[in-house]
Amino acid sequence: MVDNSAPVAARKNEAAASIPTPAELIERARALIPAIRSRAVQCTAERRVPTETIREIEAAGLFRILQPKRWGGYEMEPNVFFEVQKLLSQGCMSTGWVFGVVGGHPYEIALFPHQAQVDVWGEDDTVLVSSSYQPVGKVERVEGGFKLSGHWGFSSGSEHCNWVLLGAMIPPLNAGDPPDMRTFLLPRSDYRIEDAWYTFGLQGTGSQDIVVEDAFVPEYRTHKSADGFFCTNPGQVENDGPLYRLPWAQVFLRLVSTSALGTTIAALDGATKIMESRISTNTGKASKADPLLQGAIARGYAEVDEMETVLTRNMDVLYGRSVAGEEVTMEERARFRYQSSTVARRCAEIVDALLPLLGGRAIYMHSPLIQPWLDLHAARQHVANDPGNGAADVIGTRSGQAPSFMFM
């Protein structure tokens, strides 16, 4: 593609003049909740976020929060993004999930070499990108780059996107060399989407399969996992603000856990409304006087607040260290990763505890608890939402051991 980077400075100046404040973006997200909620059933039935919703999120500028200013983005602190994601998820967890994943990809694109950024944003800085980081691709080294083939699952929001990020392991040049895991960036013309997303929860994420057959990927359109871990990404040359000096995995982990907080708040709000009008057919007593139900709802709100407080603190620590030019310790990174990975499971347990206390009113598909309950149990299956994958590193790094896994 043609290098359209010359107008970047002009675009940056123009964009800077029109960048909304964090408070404005958060209020725009809050204002979208009713419309998103009104389409939640449609989203689930069609197994994809409605196009109208994607367009409204675009019009509100929410996909630009983590995008570099030099490419028309807002380059804001990550907690602004996660607050927006939480709010959208109160309307529909599938929508919040897709926003998190797709809206988080401008962050990783900013870490790629300059020419890759030009390829994606040079002609249209509103283009959307999906992903599947499973390292299942087959890679062959060729002049100037690689040939890539494979079949990936779980590419959330892929039907709305014109590019995709795909994981694969590159064969070592020499025996005994360390593995080289990379993310490959491909345009829509180089892959096809297969309709395979038939699930019990998060149906509306449209996390379809991606199939690639012998596509050429130039070297500059790959991103090394090691660079993301050590914060030595090529894109930091031009995107040199503190945002892009964060460990990439610490941002990604939150993209797939934060929506759980929003949908759990929606479930708790729904449980409260049922409680206010329900009369138990078993005891004949009003549920609003049931101390067990009151306790379960109160505990749920308190736990969500605790999780959000910790996660917000963690990201503030990461960003603050980046601003100060300080490193985050491996012990902190391991703990932050672990804390994020517990969110979906803890949120699922909150809703689990509510259902038996609300009787038959809670079991209908139109109940405000059922879709969040299904979505949360689907979300906990994501590899990044499994606390067991990071427990050993929490312990090991406390005694100075190197982490066993770089995804943190």
Describe the protein in words.
With 408 residues, the chain is α+β, with helices and mostly antiparallel strands. It is 47% helix and 14% strand. The chain has 15 helices and 7 strands. The protein has helices spanning 8-18, 22-38, 40-46, 51-59, 78-91, 93-109, 114-121, 225-230, 248-255, 258-277, 291-324, 330-341, 343-354, 370-379, 391-398; strands spanning 129-142, 145-155, 163-170, 180-187, 192-194, 208-218, 222-224. Helix 5 (78-91) packs antiparallel against helix 6, helix 6 packs antiparallel against helix 10 and helix 10 packs antiparallel against helix 14. The longest helix has 34 residues, at 291-324. The model has no long low-confidence stretch (mean pLDDT 93).
The number of helical segments is 15
Q: What are the low-pLDDT stretches, counting only 5+ consecutive residues below 50?
A: none
Q: Structural class, judged by helices and strands?
A: alpha+beta
The helix fraction, in percent, is 40-55%
Q: How is the largest sheet built, in terms of strand order? A: 5-6-2-1-3-4-7
Strand content: 5-15%
